[in-house]
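user: Please review this fold.
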Amino acid sequence: MKDQWRWRLLAFQSGYYGLTGIWPILHMPSFEAVTGPKIDDWLVHMVGLLAAVIGVVLGSATVRNRVRSPDVVLLAVTSAAAFAAIDLWYGLSGRISPIYLADAGLQICLIAGLALTRRTSKAESIT
């Protein structure tokens, strides 16, 4: 049962990163309408491409049912932690739009979900 939830979490994270990653590349005006104006479009595009790449890797892991791979979990947790840290640091200081605080909340939920779906005993991993 935990693998189903972990699969769903990683599939969601994959889609979320993929969509939010390509959004500013496909239509910067709507992205800025939601997230606020940006100074360096190239930097927004680079972060977007990196997010999309993470989404592709996580998506590939879900398709191949590699949701327990330590490398996949490490990528999922550390990327969510990095996004949450930046969102909180700059969102709470007022440097970026408060919408990023909602993103931070989502990233923290992803981390919590992955923690809650980890196996805790050998007996559990056999079933």
Summary: The helical segments are 2-26, 28-35, 41-63, 70-92, 99-116, 122-126. The mean pLDDT is 94.
